[in-house]
Design goal:
This protein is an alpha/beta fold. It has 2 domains: 144 residues, Rossmann fold, CATH 3.40.50; 69 residues, no CATH class. The strands form 2 sheets. Strands 6-7-8-3-9-10 form a 6-stranded mixed β-sheet, with helices on both faces. Strands 2-1-4-5 form a 4-stranded antiparallel β-sheet, covered by helices on one side. Helix 3 runs parallel beside helix 5 and helix 4 packs across helix 5. The mean pLDDT is 93. The chain binds adenosine-5'-diphosphate and magnesium ion (MG). The site of magnesium ion (MG) has 3 residues, from helix 1.
Length: 248
C-alpha cells in the first residue's frame, strides 16, 4: 500500500520554477532515493511535502488524507517529518535537550519530562549519540550534528522521514554508519525519503530512485535501472561520472 502520493506538484519562486508537475507514489516501508544535480528541486520537494513551503499547484496525499498545504506542526503530528540539509540544532542546549524538545512537538503527546527524556535517549541510542547526551550541541563534530538532526526527527516518531543530504561532508566511515542507520530506521517501520548527493550511497540503500532534473521528474526505477538509464546518464551526469560513482 502507498503511504504517500504526490500528484503534479509544482512550485514557482517568483519567476523560478523550482518544481514542475512532479508525480510519484511511495509504498509503505520503502527507502526512496531522490537524486539530481544542484538546483534540481530536491530540497524544495521535501519542503513542500513537509509543509514548510506551499505548492503553486498539485496534491500530496498521506494514506487517504489530503495533506497539501498543511503546516509543518500539523504534519509532524501526522508523522511527516524532515531533516534539514544545513543542520539547525539549538547550539546552546545539550544534545539530550535538543532531542527532548523534539519529543514534545512529536506525534505522541508526552506530559512527563521523564518520559520525554527516555524517548529522547532511545533516539540518541539509535543514532549512536547516547554517550554525548550531556554535551552542548555546539561541541559536536559535523558528523555528530548530522546524527543529532536525525535523532531530533526520529524523536517525533515519524511514519515518513525525509532525510536531506545527511552524508554531505562526512568521511567514508561516518557515511557508512549513516547508511546503516538509514536501514535501521526503515527496519523500525518508518518509510524513508532520502536525498543524497553521493550516488554510491543512494544506490546502496534505496529500493527505488526518483531522478529530478530542472524541477522535473526525469526517471524512476531500481538503482540498477537508474544507473543504466540513458536519459539519466546523458542528460545530466555524463557517462563517466555515473559509472565512476557507482562502480567499486
Ligand atoms: N526560497 C527560495 N526562493 C527562491 N528560489 C528558491 C528557493 N528555494 C529554492 N529556490 C530555487 O529553486 C531551485 C531548486 O532548488 P532546491 O530545491 O534547493 O534544489 P536541490 O535541493 O535539488 O539542489 C533552485 O533554482 C533554487 O535556487
Ligand atoms: Mg538541496
Amino acid at each position: 500500500m502507498d503511504i504517500l502520493e504526490v500528484k503534479s506538484l509544482s512550485k514557482a519562486f517568483g519567476g523560478v520554477a523550482a518544481l514542475k508537475d512532479v508525480s510519484f507514489d511511495v509504498p509503505e516501508g520503502q527507502i526512496r532515493g531522490f537524486i539530481g544535480p544542484n538546483g534540481a528541486g530536491k530540497t524544495t520537494l521535501f519542503s513542500l511535502i513537509a509543509g514548510a513551503v506551499r505548492p503553486t499547484a498539485g496534491k500530496v496525499t498521506l494514506r487517504d488524507g489530503n495533506i497539501t498545504g498543511k503546516k509543518p506542526s500539523a504534519l509532524v503530528k501526522m508523522g511527516v517529518v524532515r531533516t534539514h540539509q544545513i543542520v539547525r540544532p539549538f547550539r546552546a542546549l545539550s544534545v539530550l535537550e535538543n532531542v527532548q524538545l523534539a519529543v514534545h512537538f512529536g506525534r505522541h503527546a508526552v506530559t512527563s519530562l521523564a518520559t520525554a527524556r527516555e524517548r529522547a535517549m532511545d533516539a540518541l541510542k539509535l543514532v549512536g549519540l547516547d554517550g554525548k547526551a550531556k554535551m552542548l550541541a555546539s561541541a559536536l563534530s559535523l558528523g555528530e550534528q548530522k546524527r543529532l538532526e536525525v535523532a531530533r526527527a526520529l524523536a517525533t516518531a515519524p511514519s515518513i522521514l525525509m532525510l536531506d543530504e545527511i552524508c554531505g561532508g562526512l568521511a567514508a566511515t561516518e557515511t557508512k554508519n549513516m547508511l546503516d542507520l538509514v536501514c535501521r530506521i526503515r527496519e523500525g517501520g518508518t518509510t524513508v525519503l532520502y536525498i543524497e548527493h553521493d550516488m554510491k550511497a543512494v544506490m546502496s540503500v534505496c529500493d527505488t530512485i526518483t531522478v529530478l532534473n530542472f524541477g522535473q521528474k526525469l526517471a524512476e526505477g531500481k538503482p540498477e535501472e537508474i544507473q543504466n538509464n540513458d536519459s539519466v546518464i546523458e542528460a545530466y551526469l555524463g557517462k563517466s561520472t555515473l559509472r565512476a560513482h557507482t562502480s567499486g
